[in-house]
Amino acid sequence: MISSFQQFIKEQDFEIKHALDIGCGGGEYLNMLQKEGFKTDGIDSSKTATKITTQILNNNSNILCADMFEFVIPQNRYDLIFSISTIHHGTKKQIQNLISKICDALVENGKIFITLPNIGDAIEKGYLKNEQDLGDGTYAPSSGAEKGLPHSHYTKEEVQELFLEFKNVKIDLDNAGRKMGRWIVQGSK
C-alpha cells in the first residue's frame, strides 16, 4: 500500500465518503477506506480480482469486472476516485478520455489520487528497450502476462496537460523502493 495514499486520505476532507477504485485488484485500498467510513465501489478487468475483492469487503460495495475505458462511470457520484498502477494500461487517447470521465463522475470538490509511470526513469533504466514502441510514449511488452498490452508513460509536462480539468493539482515523483518512478497526481474537481 502506498503510504502517500494513506497520508492523502488523512489530510483531505470528504463530505460524502464515497470512493471508486479503478483497478481495485485484491481490494486492499477499498478495505482500508471502509475502515475510514467510506462507501466503496471498484472495477477491475480481472474476474479473479473482483471475486477476491468482493469476498474481502463482504458488504454492499459495487465491485464489477469491467474494461475501465468502456465502463460508464455515473456522473456526480463520488468524492474520491483513485487509480494506483492501473490507468496507464492503454493508449494516451484512451487515458485522456478516462480522465475526463473521472472528472464528470466527481461531485464538486471531489478528489483524485492517480499514479502514472515516469517515462524518464523507464528510458534511463532500460525498461523499454525490449518493448514494442507504439509511439507517443506508449509501449507494449513483447512477452509475459501483459504481452501486447499498451503501457503509456509520461513526462511531468504531459501529466500537467492531462489534468487541466482539475484544480489544486499536485504532481510528485515517487521513486521510493521502486524499480521505475511514477507520478503521483492529486487534485480536486
Mind explaining what this structure looks like?
The structure is a single chain. This protein is an alpha/beta fold. The protein has one domain: Rossmann fold (3-Layer(aba) Sandwich). The chain is built from six helices and ten strands; from the N terminus they run H-E-H-E-H-E-E-H-E-H-E-E-E-H-E-E. It has helices at residues 3-11, 28-35, 47-57, 92-105, 119-124, 156-162, and strands spanning 18-22, 39-44, 62-65, 78-83, 106-117, 132-135, 138-140, 151-152, 167-174, 182-188. The strands form two sheets. It has a seven-stranded mixed β-sheet, with helices on both faces. It has a three-stranded antiparallel β-sheet with strand order 6-7-8, with no helix packed on it. A hairpin with a 7-residue loop joins strand 9 (167-174) and strand 10. The chain is globular, with a radius of gyration of 16 Å. The protein starts with a helix and ends with a strand. The model has no long low-confidence stretch (mean pLDDT 93).
